[in-house]
From TrEMBL:
<dbReference type="Pfam" id="PF01636">
    <property type="entry name" value="APH"/>
</dbReference>
<dbReference type="InterPro" id="IPR002575">
    <property type="entry name" value="Aminoglycoside_PTrfase"/>
</dbReference>
<protein>
    <submittedName>
        <fullName>Aminoglycoside phosphotransferase</fullName>
    </submittedName>
</protein>
<keyword id="KW-0808">Transferase</keyword>
<dbReference type="GO" id="GO:0016740">
    <property type="term" value="F:transferase activity"/>
</dbReference>
<feature type="domain" description="Aminoglycoside phosphotransferase">
    <location>
        <begin position="52"/>
        <end position="263"/>
    </location>
</feature>
<dbReference type="InterPro" id="IPR011009">
    <property type="entry name" value="Kinase-like_dom_sf"/>
</dbReference>
Length: 313
Protein backbone atom coordinates (compact mmCIF):
# COMPACT_ATOMS: atom_id res chain seq x y z
CA UNK A 1 0.00 0.00 0.00
CA UNK A 2 3.03 2.34 -0.17
CA UNK A 3 1.70 4.42 -3.01
CA UNK A 4 -1.56 5.14 -1.30
CA UNK A 5 0.66 8.03 -0.18
CA UNK A 6 1.55 8.78 -3.76
CA UNK A 7 1.55 12.55 -3.78
CA UNK A 8 3.65 15.48 -4.90
CA UNK A 9 5.76 15.48 -1.79
CA UNK A 10 6.22 12.08 -0.19
CA UNK A 11 9.49 10.12 -0.07
CA UNK A 12 11.17 11.89 -2.98
CA UNK A 13 14.40 10.38 -1.73
CA UNK A 14 16.60 10.84 -4.76
CA UNK A 15 15.65 14.50 -5.15
CA UNK A 16 16.29 15.16 -1.48
CA UNK A 17 19.69 13.49 -1.53
CA UNK A 18 20.68 15.30 -4.71
CA UNK A 19 20.00 18.59 -2.96
CA UNK A 20 22.38 17.63 -0.11
CA UNK A 21 19.61 16.81 2.35
CA UNK A 22 20.84 13.46 3.60
CA UNK A 23 20.45 11.76 6.97
CA UNK A 24 23.57 13.38 8.37
CA UNK A 25 22.36 16.88 7.48
CA UNK A 26 18.89 16.09 8.83
CA UNK A 27 20.26 14.83 12.15
CA UNK A 28 22.44 17.92 12.53
CA UNK A 29 19.39 20.12 11.91
CA UNK A 30 17.44 18.05 14.44
CA UNK A 31 20.02 18.73 17.15
CA UNK A 32 19.94 22.47 16.45
CA UNK A 33 16.14 22.57 16.35
CA UNK A 34 15.74 20.68 19.62
CA UNK A 35 18.26 22.96 21.31
CA UNK A 36 16.31 26.01 20.13
CA UNK A 37 13.06 24.49 21.39
CA UNK A 38 14.59 23.37 24.72
CA UNK A 39 13.90 19.73 23.91
CA UNK A 40 16.17 16.84 24.70
CA UNK A 41 17.28 14.88 21.65
CA UNK A 42 16.10 11.60 23.11
CA UNK A 43 17.19 8.60 21.03
CA UNK A 44 15.86 10.04 17.74
CA UNK A 45 14.37 7.51 15.34
CA UNK A 46 14.32 8.45 11.65
CA UNK A 47 10.84 7.62 10.38
CA UNK A 48 11.21 8.96 6.84
CA UNK A 49 13.72 10.84 4.72
CA UNK A 50 12.35 12.49 1.62
CA UNK A 51 10.98 15.94 0.89
CA UNK A 52 10.98 16.15 4.68
CA UNK A 53 12.99 14.32 7.32
CA UNK A 54 10.71 13.04 10.06
CA UNK A 55 12.11 11.95 13.42
CA UNK A 56 10.46 10.54 16.50
CA UNK A 57 12.03 11.59 19.80
CA UNK A 58 11.59 8.33 21.65
CA UNK A 59 10.26 8.74 25.16
CA UNK A 60 9.01 12.28 24.61
CA UNK A 61 5.86 11.86 22.52
CA UNK A 62 7.23 14.32 19.95
CA UNK A 63 7.71 13.98 16.21
CA UNK A 64 10.00 16.50 14.50
CA UNK A 65 9.45 17.35 10.83
CA UNK A 66 12.36 19.04 9.02
CA UNK A 67 11.90 20.47 5.53
CA UNK A 68 14.90 20.35 3.25
CA UNK A 69 15.28 24.07 2.51
CA UNK A 70 13.84 27.47 3.30
CA UNK A 71 11.59 27.54 0.22
CA UNK A 72 9.27 25.40 2.36
CA UNK A 73 8.98 28.01 5.11
CA UNK A 74 5.53 29.21 4.04
CA UNK A 75 4.30 25.61 3.97
CA UNK A 76 5.61 25.07 7.50
CA UNK A 77 3.80 28.18 8.73
CA UNK A 78 0.64 27.00 7.00
CA UNK A 79 0.83 23.51 8.49
CA UNK A 80 1.07 24.88 12.02
CA UNK A 81 -1.81 27.30 11.40
CA UNK A 82 -3.97 24.56 9.88
CA UNK A 83 -3.31 22.18 12.77
CA UNK A 84 -4.31 24.80 15.33
CA UNK A 85 -7.38 25.81 13.33
CA UNK A 86 -8.55 22.22 12.94
CA UNK A 87 -8.06 21.73 16.67
CA UNK A 88 -10.22 24.77 17.45
CA UNK A 89 -12.91 23.22 15.24
CA UNK A 90 -12.70 19.88 17.10
CA UNK A 91 -11.64 18.14 13.92
CA UNK A 92 -9.76 14.85 14.45
CA UNK A 93 -6.35 15.84 13.12
CA UNK A 94 -2.66 15.89 13.93
CA UNK A 95 -1.68 18.33 16.68
CA UNK A 96 1.42 20.43 17.12
CA UNK A 97 3.26 20.40 20.43
CA UNK A 98 3.42 23.39 22.75
CA UNK A 99 6.67 24.97 21.60
CA UNK A 100 7.19 28.14 19.53
CA UNK A 101 7.11 27.07 15.90
CA UNK A 102 7.90 26.79 13.12
CA UNK A 103 11.62 27.33 13.60
CA UNK A 104 14.17 28.13 10.92
CA UNK A 105 17.46 26.60 12.01
CA UNK A 106 20.96 27.24 10.69
CA UNK A 107 21.27 25.79 7.23
CA UNK A 108 17.83 27.05 6.20
CA UNK A 109 15.69 24.17 7.46
CA UNK A 110 12.08 24.90 8.54
CA UNK A 111 11.18 22.70 11.52
CA UNK A 112 7.84 21.82 13.10
CA UNK A 113 7.01 19.71 16.16
CA UNK A 114 4.08 17.31 16.38
CA UNK A 115 2.41 15.08 18.94
CA UNK A 116 3.24 11.44 18.22
CA UNK A 117 0.20 9.36 17.21
CA UNK A 118 0.54 5.85 18.59
CA UNK A 119 -1.60 4.05 16.04
CA UNK A 120 -1.73 2.49 12.60
CA UNK A 121 -1.90 3.94 9.11
CA UNK A 122 -5.12 3.85 7.16
CA UNK A 123 -5.88 0.70 5.17
CA UNK A 124 -8.25 -0.15 2.30
CA UNK A 125 -11.03 -0.98 4.73
CA UNK A 126 -10.92 2.60 6.02
CA UNK A 127 -11.99 4.24 2.78
CA UNK A 128 -15.47 4.97 4.12
CA UNK A 129 -13.92 6.78 7.07
CA UNK A 130 -11.90 8.88 4.64
CA UNK A 131 -15.06 9.87 2.80
CA UNK A 132 -16.80 10.85 6.02
CA UNK A 133 -13.84 12.93 7.23
CA UNK A 134 -13.55 14.73 3.91
CA UNK A 135 -17.23 15.61 4.07
CA UNK A 136 -16.64 17.20 7.49
CA UNK A 137 -13.47 18.93 6.36
CA UNK A 138 -14.97 20.48 3.24
CA UNK A 139 -17.87 21.89 5.28
CA UNK A 140 -15.63 23.88 7.64
CA UNK A 141 -15.79 27.68 7.33
CA UNK A 142 -12.87 29.69 5.98
CA UNK A 143 -10.27 30.33 8.68
CA UNK A 144 -10.44 33.79 10.18
CA UNK A 145 -7.01 33.95 11.82
CA UNK A 146 -4.89 33.22 8.73
CA UNK A 147 -5.25 32.99 4.96
CA UNK A 148 -5.22 29.64 3.21
CA UNK A 149 -3.48 29.72 -0.18
CA UNK A 150 -5.58 29.20 -3.26
CA UNK A 151 -5.47 25.75 -4.81
CA UNK A 152 -2.59 25.41 -7.30
CA UNK A 153 -2.96 21.97 -8.83
CA UNK A 154 0.04 21.76 -11.16
CA UNK A 155 2.55 23.97 -9.36
CA UNK A 156 5.13 21.24 -8.80
CA UNK A 157 4.51 19.12 -11.87
CA UNK A 158 6.37 21.08 -14.55
CA UNK A 159 9.57 21.56 -12.49
CA UNK A 160 9.45 17.86 -11.65
CA UNK A 161 9.25 16.92 -15.34
CA UNK A 162 12.09 19.27 -16.26
CA UNK A 163 14.43 17.82 -13.63
CA UNK A 164 13.58 14.12 -13.94
CA UNK A 165 15.94 11.57 -15.55
CA UNK A 166 13.63 10.53 -18.40
CA UNK A 167 14.09 10.71 -22.15
CA UNK A 168 13.37 13.86 -24.12
CA UNK A 169 10.36 12.37 -25.88
CA UNK A 170 8.63 11.61 -22.60
CA UNK A 171 9.48 15.06 -21.27
CA UNK A 172 7.98 16.76 -24.30
CA UNK A 173 4.84 14.64 -24.08
CA UNK A 174 4.39 15.27 -20.35
CA UNK A 175 5.02 19.00 -20.64
CA UNK A 176 2.45 19.27 -23.44
CA UNK A 177 -0.02 17.27 -21.36
CA UNK A 178 0.61 19.49 -18.36
CA UNK A 179 0.03 22.61 -20.45
CA UNK A 180 -3.18 21.22 -21.95
CA UNK A 181 -4.56 20.18 -18.58
CA UNK A 182 -3.75 23.59 -17.15
CA UNK A 183 -5.97 25.15 -19.81
CA UNK A 184 -8.75 22.61 -19.28
CA UNK A 185 -8.69 23.08 -15.52
CA UNK A 186 -9.33 26.77 -16.05
CA UNK A 187 -12.55 25.95 -17.92
CA UNK A 188 -14.12 23.61 -15.37
CA UNK A 189 -17.54 24.32 -13.89
CA UNK A 190 -17.65 22.82 -10.41
CA UNK A 191 -20.68 21.41 -8.62
CA UNK A 192 -19.55 21.56 -4.99
CA UNK A 193 -19.01 24.77 -3.03
CA UNK A 194 -15.44 25.88 -2.43
CA UNK A 195 -13.89 25.16 0.94
CA UNK A 196 -10.79 23.91 2.69
CA UNK A 197 -9.19 21.04 0.80
CA UNK A 198 -6.52 18.65 2.01
CA UNK A 199 -4.67 18.36 -1.28
CA UNK A 200 -3.44 14.81 -0.73
CA UNK A 201 -6.60 13.04 0.38
CA UNK A 202 -5.69 9.38 0.34
CA UNK A 203 -6.39 6.73 2.94
CA UNK A 204 -2.83 6.54 4.24
CA UNK A 205 -3.03 10.12 5.38
CA UNK A 206 -5.22 8.75 8.13
CA UNK A 207 -3.92 7.36 11.40
CA UNK A 208 -6.03 5.23 13.71
CA UNK A 209 -5.84 4.88 17.46
CA UNK A 210 -8.25 2.06 18.07
CA UNK A 211 -11.22 2.97 15.89
CA UNK A 212 -10.65 6.73 16.11
CA UNK A 213 -9.25 8.33 12.93
CA UNK A 214 -6.82 11.24 12.76
CA UNK A 215 -6.13 13.23 9.58
CA UNK A 216 -2.45 14.03 9.01
CA UNK A 217 -0.14 15.88 6.58
CA UNK A 218 -1.25 19.44 5.83
CA UNK A 219 1.53 20.44 3.43
CA UNK A 220 -0.80 20.66 0.41
CA UNK A 221 -3.73 22.23 2.30
CA UNK A 222 -5.47 25.06 0.46
CA UNK A 223 -8.75 26.79 -0.23
CA UNK A 224 -10.37 25.41 -3.35
CA UNK A 225 -12.64 22.85 -4.94
CA UNK A 226 -13.44 19.61 -3.06
CA UNK A 227 -13.78 17.69 -6.33
CA UNK A 228 -9.99 17.43 -6.40
CA UNK A 229 -9.81 15.71 -3.01
CA UNK A 230 -12.52 13.27 -4.07
CA UNK A 231 -10.76 12.70 -7.38
CA UNK A 232 -7.78 11.09 -5.65
CA UNK A 233 -9.72 8.01 -4.53
CA UNK A 234 -11.76 7.99 -7.74
CA UNK A 235 -8.60 7.91 -9.87
CA UNK A 236 -7.08 5.22 -7.68
CA UNK A 237 -10.24 3.22 -8.34
CA UNK A 238 -10.78 3.86 -12.05
CA UNK A 239 -7.21 4.10 -13.35
CA UNK A 240 -4.91 2.40 -10.86
CA UNK A 241 -7.32 -0.35 -9.85
CA UNK A 242 -6.52 -0.10 -6.14
CA UNK A 243 -10.14 -0.24 -4.95
CA UNK A 244 -12.95 -2.68 -5.50
CA UNK A 245 -16.32 -1.41 -6.68
CA UNK A 246 -17.74 -2.04 -3.20
CA UNK A 247 -14.93 -0.10 -1.53
CA UNK A 248 -15.37 2.85 -3.86
CA UNK A 249 -19.12 2.80 -3.28
CA UNK A 250 -18.46 2.91 0.46
CA UNK A 251 -16.35 6.03 -0.05
CA UNK A 252 -19.05 7.67 -2.19
CA UNK A 253 -21.84 6.81 0.23
CA UNK A 254 -19.87 8.20 3.17
CA UNK A 255 -19.20 11.49 1.39
CA UNK A 256 -22.56 11.81 -0.35
CA UNK A 257 -21.30 12.71 -3.82
CA UNK A 258 -19.75 10.65 -6.63
CA UNK A 259 -17.21 12.83 -8.39
CA UNK A 260 -17.12 10.41 -11.35
CA UNK A 261 -20.68 11.47 -12.22
CA UNK A 262 -19.58 15.10 -12.72
CA UNK A 263 -18.77 16.09 -16.30
CA UNK A 264 -15.44 17.60 -15.25
CA UNK A 265 -14.10 14.37 -13.79
CA UNK A 266 -12.19 13.46 -16.94
CA UNK A 267 -9.91 16.46 -16.42
CA UNK A 268 -9.54 15.70 -12.71
CA UNK A 269 -8.71 12.07 -13.46
CA UNK A 270 -6.14 12.97 -16.13
CA UNK A 271 -4.51 15.48 -13.80
CA UNK A 272 -4.19 12.97 -10.97
CA UNK A 273 -2.81 10.39 -13.40
CA UNK A 274 -0.18 12.91 -14.48
CA UNK A 275 0.75 13.74 -10.89
CA UNK A 276 0.94 10.08 -9.88
CA UNK A 277 3.17 9.30 -12.86
CA UNK A 278 5.50 12.27 -12.49
CA UNK A 279 5.86 11.63 -8.76
CA UNK A 280 7.13 8.14 -9.54
CA UNK A 281 9.37 9.05 -12.47
CA UNK A 282 11.75 11.06 -10.31
CA UNK A 283 13.19 7.79 -9.00
CA UNK A 284 13.40 5.72 -12.19
CA UNK A 285 17.17 5.45 -11.86
CA UNK A 286 17.03 4.05 -8.33
CA UNK A 287 15.13 0.82 -8.99
CA UNK A 288 14.34 -1.40 -11.99
CA UNK A 289 10.87 -1.97 -10.53
CA UNK A 290 10.20 1.75 -10.41
CA UNK A 291 11.45 2.14 -13.98
CA UNK A 292 9.14 -0.68 -15.07
CA UNK A 293 6.18 0.88 -13.31
CA UNK A 294 6.92 4.28 -14.82
CA UNK A 295 6.92 2.68 -18.29
CA UNK A 296 3.55 1.12 -17.52
CA UNK A 297 2.07 4.41 -16.38
CA UNK A 298 3.40 6.51 -19.23
CA UNK A 299 1.77 3.98 -21.57
CA UNK A 300 -1.52 4.67 -19.79
CA UNK A 301 -1.12 8.39 -20.31
CA UNK A 302 -0.15 8.00 -23.95
CA UNK A 303 -2.40 5.17 -25.15
CA UNK A 304 -4.79 4.33 -22.25
CA UNK A 305 -3.03 0.98 -21.78
CA UNK A 306 -2.84 -0.85 -18.42
CA UNK A 307 -6.01 0.69 -16.99
CA UNK A 308 -6.61 -0.96 -13.63
CA UNK A 309 -3.15 -2.47 -13.54
CA UNK A 310 -0.96 0.06 -11.75
CA UNK A 311 1.21 -1.17 -8.91
CA UNK A 312 1.74 0.44 -5.53
CA UNK A 313 5.04 1.53 -4.00
Amino acid sequence: MREMIDNDDQDERSGALAAGFDEQAARAALVRACAAANLEVADPQLLRLGENAIFRLNGTGTVVRIARNDTHWDDAVKEVNVAKWLGRNDFPSARTTDVPQPLLVDGGYPVTFWAFIDGRNGQPGDVGTLGALLRRLHALPRPGSFELPQQDLLARVEPRIESSPIDAGDKDFLLELCDRLGSEIGGLNYELPVGPVHGDAHVQNLMFTGSAPTLIDFEAFSWGHPEWDLGVTATEYMTAGWWTADQYREFVDAYGFDVTSWDGFGVVRATHELKMTTWLMQNVQTSPKIAEEYALRIATLRDRENIGGWNTF
